[in-house]
Protein: WxxW domain-containing protein
Organism: Myripristis murdjan
Amino acid sequence: MINGSEDHFSNFIRHQSVFHFNLVSEECRTRWLNGDDPSDEGDVESIPQLIKTFPSHACRNPIGIEAKTTYGISAKNTRDIFLSYDVTFGFACINKEQEAGRCEDYQVLLTCPSDFCQGCRTRWFDFDNPTGRGDYETLLQLEMVFPNEVCSQPVAIEAMTVSATGQTRNPHTPGGRRCQDYKVRFTCPLSFCLVHNQWS
Ligand SMILES: [Ca+2]
Ligand SMILES: [Ca+2]
Ligand SMILES: [Ca+2]
């Protein structure tokens, strides 16, 4: 199975590797999340509830939490008293504990462990073998053959030989040189993995 040129493929690998290393150093923060309002007993933005409401955005073990009102006023600058404002439970403002009798509507932003933002890994794929021009495991091809298992915008790719004892020279091939048989796996955005549930 031959698909595309080798130059294109090696450029692809190089590009993906660079991107992977850049990503690790980035701070891992969610967008502003607002899953509740103060119309009942109060405004409760608990971690479990946020995960339920925003499964591809909120993380299970946040290392930081920040709250501000929907008008953009930081939680520390309002007169409200909070029942909870930490990474263990999340954020909670109870109406009856307030002088005004009602909490503002808050949104929260979580800082997550860096591995949360790196997404999740697929299984290993070995679709081609190194007969003919070489061993081609292209994203386009793999996506076509395994549509629910490979994401179209991976953040990283890894490749290794199928056989642990692979040799660089194959004595049975005329001319002596051919590629080893490789398998590849991808790191995909978390949103993809939650939907398809195929990560390891
Ligand atoms: Ca509420
Ligand atoms: Ca809210
Ligand atoms: Ca292969």
Notes: The helical segments are 6-25, 47-53, 114-117, 139-145, 190-196.
